[in-house]
Amino acid sequence: MRRRDLLIAAGLLVAGFAAPVSAQPGTIAVENAWAPPTPGASKTAAVYFTVINRGGTPARIVGAATPAAEHADMHTTIRDGDIMRMRRVVSVEIPAGGKAVFAPNGFHVMLTGLKAPLKMGDKLQVTLKFAEAGDVPVVVTVRR
After folding, report:
1. How many CB atoms neighbour CB 85 within 10 A?
2. Which candidate, 128, 88, 102, 99, places its Cα nearest to that of 35?
3. % of residues, the chain, pLDDT over 90
4. Can you name the residues that pair with 45 across neighbouring β-strands?
5. Distance between CA atoms of 141 and 144, rounded to whole angstroms?
6. Residue 53 pLDDT
7. Pairing of strands 108-114, 69-80
8. Longest dimension (CA), the chain
9. By the 8 A CB rule, do 142 and 121 touch?
10. What is the arithmetic mean of pLDDT over 99-107?
């Protein structure tokens, strides 16, 4: 084998190992995505949804993004004595064949720096970022 052919083969081998691992198409589903309307000129909102992992391996949400706000971060709500506190989380695991529920007083995606108030019936685009499945676009409906 010529040197050039060896270099090409080595490059393809390295590229193969560097490729991201992804879940099979259709193994991740996001249902019931919603956000409550924002009061007045509020610049923050929470987004709730359920993620279903139909695959045979765990999946992990590692981030979120939206054009509707400057930042979209995952949080959880915890009880600290008599006070409820929000804490940022870097990832949320969804077990194989399981689900993760993002709901009031639990996990949620916190939008900060909203570019416009969220009004009843509005729809906004949020992209959930999965370590294994890549980006999953979600349409969020504003409702109570």
Report:
1. 11
2. 102
3. 79
4. 111
5. 10
6. 97
7. antiparallel
8. 72
9. yes
10. 97
